[in-house]
Structure formats: C-alpha cells, structure tokens
Design goal:
Strand order of the largest sheet: 1-2-3-5-4
Number of strands: 5
Structural class: alpha+beta
Order of helices and strands: HHHHHHHHEHEEHHEE
Number of helices: 11
Helix content: 55-70%
Amino acid sequence: MPSLRPPGITAPLGDVIAVALVVLFGVLPYPDEVFQARGLLLVVALLPVAVIPIRRRWPVATLGVSLACTVGIAFAGVLAPGTLIAVTVAAFSVAARTRRLVAIIYVGLAALVVFVVSSVPLHGDLFDSRALQFVSFIVVAGAMGDATRSRREYIAAVTERAERAERGKEEEARRRVAEERVRIARDLHDLVAHQISVISLSAGVASSSLQARPERAQEALTNIRSASRSVLADIGTLMALLRTENADEQRDLHPQAGLSRLDHLLSRFTDAGLQVTLHREQGIAPLSSASDHAAYLALQEGLTNAHKHGTGNQTAVDIRASAGDVLLTVTNPVGREASLAAASGHGLRGLRERVAAVRGNVRTLRRDGEFRLIVTIPSADGTGR
C-alpha cells in the first residue's frame, strides 16, 4: 500500500517530531499557572511520549493513555498542553487507522472528555477559550486523519484495479497465444497430415510393386513426388505466415476447398491404393463457404484415418441430406487398437473444433470391426436448425 506521508518524512521522523512537540509543550514556562505541571505532574504530562511510537499499530490504546494522563492532571488542577498535544496526535492516528464509525466515536469521546475535564482547572468555565482551542485541535486532527484514511483507501483501490487490469491483459495474452498455437497445429495437420499419409501409402505400393509391376511402382512414385511438392508448398506457406508481422500481409493458410473438389480428393487416395466407394445423394441443400470447407476437411480426415488405421485398404463415403443438414459418413474396417487410436487422435480433435465453428457436430462409432466417422453440417438456409 503506498505511503501518504510527504516526501522525505519517514515514520520514525514523524514520531520524533510528535514526541518533541509533547515534550516542548510540557516543559515550556507558561506565564499562566494553570498550564504549568511540576514535579510528579510533569512526569505524568510526559508519559504519553512512551506510547506515541506505537500509535500506528495501536491508535486507540495511544489515545486512551494520552487521555488518561490529561484527565489525571486536570483533576490535579493543571491543564497540561503537552498531554493535550498527545491527545491530538493520537486522535489523528485513530481516524487514519480505524474505520470511520469507530473513529467518530473515539475522537468525539476524546473531544467531549477534554471539553468537560478542562473545566476543573478553569474553575468550572466550560467555554473558556483556552480549553476550546484544544478541543478544536482534536476535532480538526480527527478530520485530517479521516481524510488521510480515505485517500489511502482510494489509492489502494486504484492500485488494485490497475493490477487487476494488468493481470487481465496478461491472461488475455496467454489465452491468445494458446489459441494461436492450437490454430497453427490444426492448420499444420490439415495441410500436411493427409499428404504424408498419401506418401506413406504410395511408398508401400512402390516397394511391393517394384519387381512384379514396375508400371505400378512408377505411378506410385509419381504420386509421391506430387504429394511431396504439395507438402513443401504448404509448409512454405505456413512458415511465411509465422514470419509475417503485419496481419494485413498474411496469406490465407486454409485450403478453402469444398465438396466440389471431392472427386480430386478421392482420386488422390485412389491413386495411392485406397479403394473408395462413394454414395452421394442428389439434391443436397447448398452449404455456406465455411460449412463447405468444413465438410471437405471432414472427408479428408476420414480418408486419412482410413488409410492410417484401417485394414484392407478400403473405405466407404456416404453423403446425404438429413433433416435439412448434410450428413457425411466415412466407414472403414479397422482393428480394435487402431480404432481407439483413430478416435483419440489430434486430427479428430481439430476437426471437432472446425465443425463446431459452423454449428455442426462430429461423432465416431466402432461396431462389428468397422470404424465410422459421422459428421453433420448445417445447410446454408438453416432448415435443419
């Protein structure tokens, strides 16, 4: 919590000044006898200097000791200015260090006690100006202490809000970094994973056909070269995006292909040796550009998983309308361990995020040795919603 003392004035120095004032006003040779404390009364008048250093930690106790000394000396017939200065200092500390209601009660009680007991050495005159000036000092000190406390609380509140805002900015920055990492990982998977799958499958075909069917091996090697070029181009695009600082100069990393490129997608997997059976229903409702791209990515992910985790190098793709939406199903035979790997992969996790962004959903099902990817994409007119 920031300090409210003027620059250059430390807490010990403030205590020294307060003690010096109490001692000075306690020993001054006043011309009026009523202000002079001698002998044992002088010791009592200087007693508050022992508690002034603890006034910040125990302000009420400091006020009580100072007020008790004032009352005791007053009943001995002396109006000691030193103890009254101590009461004033303690009243400031009470108002500055306690709640407002508590401060009002204690400061008001102190002013009332001084007002009443001052009449004893002044021969019963409650409204003697010599006593009223000390009462006014106590009240003013209480008001200044309350103002100090209010200012301290205000600065603390402003500081806390600033720190909270700074923490919010840091959390927002971390959240954006995390989202960007997920986006880059998802884009990298979409751009590269299926191409690597095609390369792997084609390499297997080339290896097995090199002696018996060299023409088949040559075709597989051609597919490997084409897919390799595509992967290199996609990685180059990704690197260019990561190196670009100006967002306006960033190139679009997303391959905005849709279902119109389905034949091209199927041919790439077919050329790599995956047997794909396609059933496409006619009259399917049109999709928005984002939904069309999500549908393409769903089929790409399904075919990639069929190649990586499927058995028999075969899969079935079904595209049909369902309650105004587009229902995409990719089915392929698979072993138990492979089906679990397919259902829990990073590709499906990213696909769920992409499909959810267009208000669709992704389900996976394993039954009778088959793995099934079921994706629902809402149509452009939203009739299914």
